[in-house]
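Q: My labmate handed me this sequence with no annotations at all. I'd like to see what the chain might look like in three dimensions before we decide whether it's worth expressing. Could you predict it?
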Amino acid sequence: MKTLKITSVILLFAFSLSLVSGATAVEQSKLQDFKIPEKELNVKLNHKFKINLKSNPTTGYKWVVYYNHKFLKLVGEKYIPDKPIFDGSGGHTIFLFKALKTGKTDVVLRYTRHTTKELPAKVVVYHVKIHR
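A: Here is what I predict for the chain of 132 residues:
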C-alpha cells in the first residue's frame, strides 16, 4: 500500500512537471517569434530628447518604460489623442528624457496591461549614446 502511494505521488509529480515544461516551451516559442524593434539615438550631454510611440489607453494597454537612472532622467510623460477625438480612438504617448552622463545606455519600453501577466503586446528598445 505504501509503495502504491509513493508511486502515485511520483507519477503525479512527473505529470505536473511535463505540463509546466510544455507551457514554458510555448512561452519560449512566442518569444522567438517576437521581433523587437531597435532604434539608435545620439544625444548631447545635458540635452533633452523625446520618444514618441503610438498608444491607445482605452484598450487597457500602456507603455511602461525601463531605463538607467544614472544616465537618463525622465522629465515628462504625456498622452496626446489623435484628432478627431472619439471613443476608442488612439493617440501617442511621448516620453521626455534628459541625458545626465556620457556613455551608452538603453531605454526599453513595453506596451502591456499592468493587470495581467501576459507577454507585452509590443516592446521597443532605444540604444542611446550620450556624448559631449
